[in-house]
Write a structure and sequence with these properties.
Elements: H1 6-13, H2 17-25, E1 33-34, E2 40-41, H3 44-58, H4 63-73, H5 81-114, H6 124-130
Antiparallel strand pairs: 1-2
């Protein structure tokens, strides 16, 4: 089996070395085999798994969801509905975040539109930020 060092794995996958170690420490990536000099050695399966993890993280999946998705890859006969449920929940979370960000954008735009562009003593933006939050948009 061909093995690669953690540095080469990092270069090949675009995942930083500390992140690889972290994924290993939380069990997303299996503990690496060690060389005689105690250096981590990774194989092709580790590279594929790390690419999967990286792509899932780029799509915004949380660690626990990635853990669940990885578990599904080990059972090829399992229904795809399980993966679909995880992705559907993630999409709902994305849509919720987009709605919150849209509300925030509107609130900041409103603050800017109401500003008189005079002196700081007349600044509606600073006044709005200093006052109580009367909107229901919180992060």
């Amino acid at each position: 089996m061909q093995t690669t060092s953690i540095g080469a794995l990092s270069s090949e996958t675009g995942v930083k070395i500390p992140t690889i170690r972290y994924y290993e420490s939380i069990g997303l990536l299996d503990a690496a085999n060690r060389s005689a000099s105690n250096r981590r050695l990774y194989g092709p399966d580790d590279t594929r798994r790390l690419r999967f993890i990286r792509h899932a993280r780029e799509l915004g999946f949380e660690v626990e969801a990635i853990r669940q998705l990885l578990a599904l890859t080990g059972d090829q006969a399992r229904p795809c509905a399980d993966a679909d449920a995880i992705a559907t929940a993630h999409l709902a979370d994305i849509n919720h975040k987009i709605a919150r960000l849209s509300a925030l954008r509107e609130e900041v735009a409103r603050m800017i539109a109401e500003d008189c562009h005079g002196t700081i003593s007349e600044c509606r933006i600073l006044e709005a930020l200093a006052g109580p939050c009367d909107r229901h948009h919180t992060l």
